[in-house]
Design goal:
The structure is a homodimer.
Chain A lengths: L2 E8 L5 H16 L4 E9 L4 E8 L2 H17 L6 E7 L1 H6 L5
Antiparallel strand pairs in A: 1-3, 1-4, 2-3
Chain lengths: 100, 100
């Protein structure tokens, strides 16, 4: 079943175009993850917070990725990581034009 | 600028098809919100948690909706609401096939 994964955590930049430059290689790696349908990259420079919203084809791949990504972020020194996994209500989401 | 809004909160159901039935009218109202591009409806019956991921065309409409939705949830008796707003990094998101 399609699984939505939320990640967000304290982040000190880089932001915007410099974030793109620093993390394009990582994005290419993540694009190749098993079961990943898409990831939206999020950033909030004012609140010093960043993260991602992921759609996975199934719960098993989402859980595997969540553990792997949390360990990677911790290896970068990130603490205070919030990671949550949800099912998607496809019928309600269709009413609100969600791209599923 | 496109703004991503995250909401999640403790929730006691209904879940799945019964959630769809209970909240379809609300979904139709939300679909008509100014500036809303889409909303994905999320639910986690095991953790008793639900929420939504929204994409808005601009920060002003996202902030207006966030205040309105928080007040609505509180009027339903919901507490412990987590609401976060982010910019989207469009270039990194394009690498990971995000539907923006």
């Amino acid at each position: 079943m399609t699984t939505l994964l939320q990640f967000d955590f304290p982040f000190d930049g880089p932001w915007g175009a410099r974030m793109t430059e620093a993390l394009s290689g990582l994005a290419e790696d993540i694009a190749a993850e098993n079961g990943l349908i898409w990831k939206i990259w999020t950033e909030n420079e004012v609140e010093h917070r960043a993260g991602g919203i992921y759609l996975f084809a199934d719960e098993t791949n989402a859980a595997r990725y969540a553990a792997r990504h949390k360990a990677r972020l911790e290896s970068f020194g990130v603490t205070g990581i919030v990671s949550r996994s949800f099912s998607v209500n496809a019928e309600l989401s269709a009413i609100t034009r969600a791209p599923l």
